[in-house]
Amino acid sequence: MTPFGTRLRAAMDARGPLCVGIDPHAALLSSWGLNDDIAGLETFSRTVVEALADSVAVFKPQAAFFERFGSKGIAVLERTVADARAAGTLVVMDAKRGDIGSTMAAYAQTFLEPSSPLFSDALTVSPYLGYGSLEPAVDLARRSGAGLFVLALTSNPEGAEVQRAVREDGRTIGATMLGHLARENAGASPMGSFGAVVGATLGDLSSFDLDINGPLLAPGIGAQGATAADLPAVFGPAVRNVVPNVSRGVLKHGPDAAALRASATRFADEIRAAVSA
């Protein structure tokens, strides 16, 4: 398969860089007039995919909101992933997996092995058992043409106590993770497949080298307070590789498909204008 970074660059150039989260939490299902059950989960997910799959570059389903329903929820997640990918939208599975050895390999096989029913174009992973613990996922992603998004500088306030901690060599943990990713992406063109999660709400990040030759998944646009206009100041020269994620800002307009499309189009246009300014 063509490497994820190449496919993502093409999708961003063709459709704009917007990533829409698929986050069917109980309050959102209720606001759509749906029950917090399998039927509501399925209606919600199908509506989002049918409304947006032909126009957005990336979907990011949050696995936890499906897993909470057990095997039936996983079955809905499988169909959601398959339908989105069949419609031409890339899928980043937001599962934030992180472990060691054979356990990490099993997580990788779940989401990055092409024969798996949950195979996704990319997976979010946590490196805080040491970046080397991600090796099984890195290796399988390379073989399968998939990608990873590694938690580096996240938007939640609690993340700073780990990610901004300073190592003995004077570098922060977050900067160390970015350095690992830059090495993974060295020589890739037009963009590497190993990205970082970097919050759009973090303000000036000029002290970090975000030029990792890979994508930067940026949560925080919309409900968390960041706007498209903030992106150049936060990401600087790396802004062209930013994949801004919007979840509630788009999803709150459901279940009306036209309203979902209008909201996604507005965010996409604002992001495109900010990134290309």
From TrEMBL:
One of its GO terms (molecular function) is orotidine-5'-phosphate decarboxylase activity. One of its GO terms (biological process) is 'de novo' pyrimidine nucleobase biosynthetic process. InterPro entries: Aldolase_TIM, OMPdecase_AS, OMPdecase_type-2, OMPdeCOase_dom, RibuloseP-bd_barrel. Pathway: Pyrimidine metabolism; UMP biosynthesis via de novo pathway; UMP from orotate: step 2/2. Residues 17-263 form the Orotidine 5'-phosphate decarboxylase domain. The keyword Lyase applies. The active site is at residue 96. Keywords: Decarboxylase, Lyase, Pyrimidine biosynthesis. It comes from the Bacteria. Pfam families: OMPdecase. It is an enzyme of class 4 (lyase). Its EC number is 4.1.1.23. It catalyses: orotidine 5'-phosphate + H(+) = UMP + CO2. Belongs to the OMP decarboxylase family. Type 2 subfamily. This is Orotidine 5'-phosphate decarboxylase.
